[in-house]
Amino acid sequence: MLTALARLADTACVVVAQDRATQRRREPIGPGALRQVRRCIALASELRLPLVTVIDTPGAALSREAEEGGLAGEIARCLSDLLRLPSPTVSLLLGEGAGGAALALLPADRVVAAEHSWLAPLPPEGASAILHGGDISFAPELAAAQGVAVARLQEAGVVDLIVPESPDVATFSRDLVRAVSAALAEAADEPWSLRAPRRAQRYRRGQ
Asked: Which Pfam families does its entry note (predicted)?
């Protein structure tokens, strides 16, 4: 996990992000990483700052140690903490969004997504392996059935705004910052008395 106090445009905020490269080189997200997320949520609440979460993960650790360390409980507590956080919140779906590690950072007032990002409780390859005896060749078919692409997620009400992916990294980065900043401003314009029930209702519906 990467955490920071940051400024997006003119808005100071707390940012917590999943470092995909580190996950692949070293180890996937475990309960300790999610406890770090919860400390950032608490910090945003204490400082009365908006919170931005960045989702980009191939999934949480699949190990006996992670389960015994309380992984499932930490995912649940992250979800609960995000739903109750009074600060304006924006979730940025940047790339892969696989499994509980992605869902743990999702609940927010606004969700912004990069054009080719995706989100699924179970990766299509995993679903294919489970349903077809280890064969992952059915992953594209299952991805379509699951509706993991951002266009489908927007139709379902999970994603609010899709940001086109420019081949120029600097342009794409600026576009993301503008989109997240605008989403934060929209959320901040609404009082907590309105955002709280709306956020809860949105995710209670499974959206």
From this structure: ACCA
